[in-house]
Write a structure and sequence with these properties.
Layout lengths: L1 E6 L2 E3 L5 E3 L4 E3 L5 E3 L1 H17 L1 E8 L5 H10 L3 E5 L9 H16 L6 E5 L10 H9 L3 E12 L4 E8 L2 E8 L2 E5 L11 H9 L3 E3 L40 H16 L10
Parallel strand pairs: 1-6, 1-8, 6-7, 7-13, 8-12, 9-12
Antiparallel strand pairs: 2-5, 3-4, 9-10, 10-11
Helix pairs in contact: 2-5, 3-4
Length: about 280
Amino acid sequence: MLHIVACIKQVPDTKIIKMNPKTNTMDRASAPAILNPYDAHAVEEAVRLKERYGGIVSVVTMGPPPAVKAIRKCVEIGADEGYLVTDRAFAGADTLATSYAITMAIKKIAETQPVDLVICGKMTIDGDTGQVGPGIARRLNIPPLTCVKKVVEVNKEQGYTIVHRKLEDGYEVIQSALPCLFSVEKEINEVPYSPLPNMLRAARYNPIIWSVNDLGDIDRTLLGLKGSPTIVAKVWPPEKPKGGEMLQGSSSEQVAHLMDILQDKRGLFRVKEGQA
């Protein structure tokens, strides 16, 4: 029986979020908090593997108390248990400090039942770094398989898994020992509408909540701002593109004008007719 842990995050909906023009920071209050879309696909894949091979799916997240909503969404998808790691000691964590805190939570989860597989989304839409998953794998000393687009097989008895890993021009087939960590692409599956029994269970579900004191022998210097060597000094929106130029004249005149514009942008010199 597989024990799969899915690492998730509650993030602001970046389709709606605005930038504060005075502070040049994201106005997180301007957008609703949602389950990170990549993580939804990670949880869905964990549930599919549970249904295929048997087992349980645990989800874990670090965040403020309202992050229980993201855990309940995972229960809707089909997760069995949820763990929220929340404490002021974790505030201001970058990807390095976050991966350490999540790793300690996974180790505590494993005390009840050993973990065979950890699944993460490829990245979060508010950070776009893709660093937390590999950081967890490094701290757990297990292989990280990134950009996974298909899980071919998970064989717990023989201790291996086979996946397809997305490349720019195709994919590669990877076989890895278990336990290991997947960070998955959105195309790995489609997240369907949740069945009514799952929705009812999620509405009543209360996750297990841990503070920093519950995580055992933890190094507090590796948490929060103290454990975060990365500092985001400033965030600003990209410049709005300038309006386009309408070309006038005949077709040949427009083509000639367009070539002049393109070559000017490339820093090239085009010899005009009669100058050669």
